[in-house]
Amino acid sequence: TEEYFLKLKLEEFNTAFYTLISITCGMLYHNSIINDNNTNKPFTHLTQTITLILITISVVLFNLSSLNRYFIILHIDKYTLQVFKTKSLCSVKYCGYFILELCISLMHPNIYCRNIHITFNKRYYRYTVTYTINDMLLIITLLRVYVLFRFLIAISVFYSSRADRIAHLVGSHLNRLFVVRCTVLTYPFTFLV
Question: Is 0.90 surpassed by the pTM of this model?
Answer without folding.
Answer: no
